[in-house]
Amino acid sequence: MKLLPLVKLTVAAALMVAIAGIACAGADPAAPTVGGLSSPGITDDQVLFGQSAAFSGPSRELGREMRLGIEAAFYEANQSGGVHGRRLTLKTLDDSYETEYAFHTTKLLIERAQVFALIGAVGTPTSRVASPLAHDAGVPFLAPFTGAEFLRDPALDNVLNVRASYYQETEEMVARLTEDLGITRVAVLYQNDTFGTDGLEGVRRALASRGLQPVGASHYQRNSGAVRSATSEIVASDPEAVIIIGASESVATTIELARKDIDPVFLTVSFGGGRALAKALGHDGKGVYVTQVMPFPEDAGIPVVASYHAALANYNPAAEPGYVSLEGYLAGRLAIFGLEDCGHDLSRQCFIDALHTSRVIDIDGFQLQYGPDDNQGSDRVFLSVIGPDGKYHQVEKLASAK
Predict the structure, then answer these.
(1) In Å, how far are 51, 56, 144, 326, 341 from 395, measured between CA atoms?
(2) What's the CA gap between 346 and 322, in Å, rounded?
(3) Of residues 84 and 276, more confidently modeled
(4) Residues 6+ apart with CB under 8 A from 338
(5) Contact of 245 with 190, CB cutoff 8 Å
(6) Helix, strand, or coil here: 261?
(7) Which residues have CB under 8 Å from 218's CB, separation 6+?
(8) Given this model, what pLDDT does residue 39 score?
(9) What is the pTM of this model?
(10) Looking at residue 373, what is its pLDDT?
(11) Beta bridge pairs of residue 265
(12) Among candidate residues 273, 251, 296, the one with its CA nearest the CA of residue 396
């Protein structure tokens, strides 16, 4: 049996267990009422959030790290008595970064678990099937771990993005390649789904604005790890730089294969560039650039990072700081801000309205700003590189390794 069907069977079994578990928990089909308002996920002493993300499969570390950060923020609030006397709880279900499972896990969280809001979804293709379910049900869809352009549509008034978009990440890549190194021959290897094509389009737009186009573009199938053929096409295009829009395991394999024949500058976006990528590449990761949408997670001199370190240490002393769990922590803190702003008479609409404010939301120095036609809080893109020590280092510009 092939690996992917086996994974699908495993996740399908887990979904059946999840359904049974939610049913046994006695979820009431009628939403609980607080202050005369229909308010799913709210009781007198709890607010229930839901997260559908990858907790198994090649992208499992992203889901686990996002959950870690969210739970650290919630734990921090709960240790102080919760928000307006209500503890924050997170219900998670595994979608294995597969769209069909994300559809069902999201429906379970909305209809059976009756969560107040969804938070920390992982991935573009999974968010594409999950966000319409949330929108139709009037459920807040908070801080998905994706820079997908479709989620920046202002008509999606229930969506609150924290991070910068993939278009912004790829624009920064192309700006740095052309301005810092004078590179014009750029190839793109991308995952063949909405995530990959979104990143490819971002690269094409950035190059076109400079009178350029990709010298090569090839793709691989999501969750397959089969990148050899796509990498061969990239090598044949003889690029000076390769931008990879993919998950960490595929990014690492592509770099290892390509380096046998060529030595370009390698860059990837934040989705594929967490701790899993640095671990997969080890010392061979030297010189690989990653655009990030969070501050450097090791720098406790940054106030929000210091808060994150303290919360992480209190929640799980063995956990190591990283870009993804920092993003999860900020997602949790943003949720807490919305809950605090609403006061005790909490509702989904109040929560959405509280975040769709034109005022600056300051989370220990990390500023987010939304508005009636703007559902993305941050536009910041940071540049990082994997050093000889196998760790990430924040840099301002690209440097030639030659």
Answers:
(1) 33, 32, 26, 19, 36
(2) 32
(3) 84
(4) 140, 351, 352, 354, 355
(5) yes
(6) coil
(7) 188, 189, 190, 229, 230, 231, 233, 234
(8) 78
(9) 0.90
(10) 87
(11) 241
(12) 296
